[in-house]
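Predict structure. Chain length: 625.
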Amino acid sequence: MPDVADRRPAVSPLLTAALALAALSVLRRLRLPHPTVRQILGGTGASRSRAYEQRDALLALLPSLERAVGRPRASPPPAVDTSGLADQVLDFVMQHPGCVYTRGRRQRYSDSFRRFLLELCEQHRKVQLDAFATAVHLPLGTLKDWLRGGRQGTDAPATSTDPVRTEPDPATATRIETILAEWRRWEGSFSAFCDHVSLNLRIAYGRTLIGSILEQHGERVPRRRTGRSPDEKALRKAFQTFFPGAQWVGDGTPIDVQIGGQRFGFNLELMVDAHSDAVVGASTRDEEDSKAVVEAFDDGVRTTGAPPLGVLLDHRSSNQTPEVDEGLGSAMRMDATKGRAQNKAHVEGAFGLFFQVVPLLAVTATSAKEMARQILMLVVQTWGRTLNHRPRKDRNGRSRVQIYTTETPTPEQIAQARAALEERCRQQELARKTIEARQDPVKRSLLDEAFTRLALSDPEGNIRAAIARYPLDHILGGIATFAGKRQAGTLPDGADARYLLGIVRNISQKDEGLRITEALLRARLEARDRLLLPLRKSLDTLMQNISDPMQRLKTLADLALGAGRLVDRLFWLDALADHIRRQPDSRHSALLRFVSQRIHAAFAVDQRDRQAAVRFLCTEVIPLA
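Prediction complete.
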């Protein structure tokens, strides 16, 4: 028989007795079979007192043998001295008055202060972000936003009223010179500067007077809102109508109904006769879709007894589906003019009147959703009938019902209206086919893939045809912007293919302005215009005095963002793109990211202008062809 290896630990009888005694207390607690103390001591030959001393030592050692679950706790990073950071920030704030300003509970920062902290953070990479934010007295979330490229609206000037003026004070030359001198060294917002003039300089001028002084001396150009379009009044009453029942106008609007503590949302779809302004049909559904249009149309047919010759609908994708075309039957579906709500003034006016007279649709009794829908339908029917029977002053006291029922068109009028509507539809179809024939197949295939990937609806291809009219660069920029907004969750509710068309159109208009200005700039450079000679001299001086490529990059970016005129900004952007192109190709992407971060940190510049500047640099440095 082979020998079995002895695996017993090589310990003394005393330690064996101590181990058995330690196990004895556990066995007793668990009520398991166990030997007596006398049996343990007799079997090992150890003395009682020494065995109990070793047992106590073993029990004290047991907790140290078990380690906690998971990885051992990491040692804290070595402490880094941040005492000098606060001093550097304090020196910068003292040299740049107004770069940090408090309004209410919010702290506001100038672009120069933001760039200074970004460079300081880059120089002290070994310092943890939370320690750096604490040292420079900046919220950690704000610092992270700046490092990600900035956040829209962080530095927007707050709205406030003018400081109180005690008595009219004439604008003396001394006060004006003081204001101009302070503004030239000021780096905060205009609103904060007005408070600074009133509180610190003791000059009791309001915001309007201060802004006028700065504007007259060419120190500040205020942003003004665009006025109302001059052709809106001229186009009033230009909608061509024929007779009652010739053309209906349909549209939908959201409306809420409250039942007890629950609120239900519906879509109210109306059909309004263009000639009499009578509300002929209505539908209430959960959302504005093709079925809502068909239901409102069928309700109008039941109300009037006959379908119209044509129905005018907007360019919403749910209005341009085969279900709508089939539901309208013999009636022609016509598209409203894009960008002009006045083209559907009949139904828009009906909505306006409805919301003027409709009470709060709230029922205290608890019930089902269908009850809320029926209540809404009753309110709409009551309002529509009341409106239709109300006399109209502009129609010689006749109501909408009287106009609709008493005027009978002749066969000649019906034929003329049908011919006019068919001719209008034919012209729209010809225009659509002409646009498609002129489009680049590469753009169409690119748009088809993008619409499929983004799940955008365009059954008839009208929106893709409109987008394909723009250059390829602008289409790519629009698709990227739409996809990026969707990933970031910043797309507005209901954003569809028309929203993508608006993005492409805005990019095209902005870049078109930049290109026009660039052409003007190059023409003026060739002619050695006096206006651009100082810019060229400044650029030559900058290149001679600054040898570090990164410092040149920062300086050119700051000059472009600080330019007050579009021509100046484009000059410095072009110089910045030329400087990046002269660097190795492997560094272009990194330099563009660095400049983009610096541009997006300049919150004093409008967001659209910052985005246009980044697109211009990317297009110039990395062209598609």
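Summary: Confidence is low (pLDDT under 50) at residues 149-171, 229-235.
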